[in-house]
């Protein structure tokens, strides 16, 4: 089958991701498709009790969502947790990361990866933007992760 793509115009978009944290517990990523939210504890020595902490997610296409961590949810040092929606299929990145580590990094503490299948059907799909906030049990913002897809780039027409 021969497909002629020469007459198709490509749409160029740019997606900007931003993250900020007040401490070593932070977002590592959030899937615009609503499959997974990833949180890191980058502290090399301190565990964090996330009991009562919560994530608030707002997107352009679906309603506001809140997820609260259950009792005795301890995030050990140097640990990444992947919080998957119940309808998504978890794909761990740990094998790829371990494979790409240099020999020097084996002397340091290695990152631990934990996959958690939540009871949420979805983390809500985001078409053009999402804002994800992590709050402690007292309602203080600890981390934020956002994405925004900018409008398509207009191409100059050749004369």
TrEMBL record:
Gene Ontology molecular function terms on file: structural constituent of cytoskeleton
Keywords assigned: Coiled coil
InterPro entries reported in the protein's UniProt record: Lamin_tail_dom, Lamin_tail_dom_sf
Span of domain LTD: 13-149
UniProt GO cellular component terms: nuclear lamina
Organism domain of life: Eukaryota
GO terms classed as biological process: heterochromatin formation; nuclear envelope organization; nuclear migration; nuclear pore localization; protein localization to nuclear envelope
Protein name (Swiss-Prot/TrEMBL): LTD domain-containing protein
Organism: Rotaria sordida
């Amino acid at each position: 089958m021969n497909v002629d793509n020469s007459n198709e115009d490509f749409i160029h978009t740019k997606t900007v991701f931003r993250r900020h944290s007040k401490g070593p517990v932070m977002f590592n990523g959030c899937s615009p498709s609503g499959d997974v939210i990833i949180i890191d504890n980058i502290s090399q020595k301190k565990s964090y009790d996330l009991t009562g902490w919560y994530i608030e997610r707002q997107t352009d296409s679906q309603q506001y969502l809140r997820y609260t961590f259950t009792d005795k949810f301890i995030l050990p040092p140097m640990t990444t947790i992947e919080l998957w929606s119940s309808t998504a299929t978890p794909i761990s990145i740990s094998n790829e990361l371990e494979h790409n580590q240099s020999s020097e990094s084996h002397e340091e503490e290695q990152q631990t990866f934990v996959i958690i299948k939540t009871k949420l059907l979805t983390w809500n799909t985001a078409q053009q933007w999402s804002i994800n906030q992590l709050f402690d049990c007292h309602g203080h913002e600890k981390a934020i992760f956002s994405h925004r897809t900018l409008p398509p780039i207009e191409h100059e027409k050749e004369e």
